[in-house]
Prior knowledge:
Layout: E1 6-15, E2 18-28, E3 33-37, H1 44-51, E4 59-64, E5 67-68, H2 76-79, E6 82-85, H3 97-103, H4 111-124, H5 126-130, H6 141-153, E7 159-163, H7 171-186, E8 190-194, H8 198-204, E9 207-212, E10 215-221, H9 222-227, H10 229-235
Parallel strand pairs: 3-8, 3-9, 6-7, 7-8
Antiparallel strand pairs: 1-2, 1-4, 4-5, 9-10
Amino acid sequence: MSTPLLQVKDLKVAYGGIQAVKGIDLQINQGELVALIGANGAGKTTTLKTLVGMIKPVGGEILYDGQPTARLPSYAYVKHGLAMVPEGRGIFSRLTVEENLQMGAYTRDDKADIAIDMERVYQLFPRLKERQKQLAGTLSGGEQQMVAMGRAIMSRPRLLLLDEPSMGLAPIIVQKIFEIIRMIAAEGVTMLLVEQNARLALQTANRGYVMESGKITLADTATNLLANESIQHAYLGE
Length: 238
Ligand code: ATP
């Protein structure tokens, strides 16, 4: 077996006295698309933020490519191929679409490859090509999600963390965004997907983790989780 791309051991994260993540274990192998599902406040966003170095854990260990990330300075995460598409997109609304995408490549100096990746993003999102000179703040929610995903792709991620990509989007746009998530996965990018829409997340992912009150309560293949009665009742509205 090759080393997992990401290994999380007994991770604990707290906000002051509030324990948001209470000792979780996760593993993501190269090329996998893994879903993390759970109710509001379960600790999913906190987990993602900790994985990209935005929050320092109070306990446990994160191994990325077999190496502990504890000593990595925050700015180095992107350079090492860890990228997050945050909840609420976090795009630069007063920059154009193209400028937002260029921001994603800020740690890179390989100009020719950056140009190739820009074309690749425009192939994935033809809509963004049409609007490349438009200010990102004037785009629709779905288009802004595309900008956020395109910007992350511009960093050439090895592990892409997506936080609630469907949030606030019309169902038809959600379908489009998930189609693109599948295309990115098919290109070999490893992904961890946090999503309120548990059904869609599990229909898209290979494996899934269920998080409740700061703990992982279930880990299984996506197929088994979709067939699991307690998951169906709690998260799939059946
Ligand atoms: P959501 O889907 O609502 O984003 P989540 O599963 O991502 O939920 P988190 O946002 O990680 O959950 O929150 C986990 C817990 O930590 C919650 O109890 C939340 O109130 C708390 N929390 C989150 N951010 C902070 C913060 N900045 N300061 C204090 N407590 C926080």
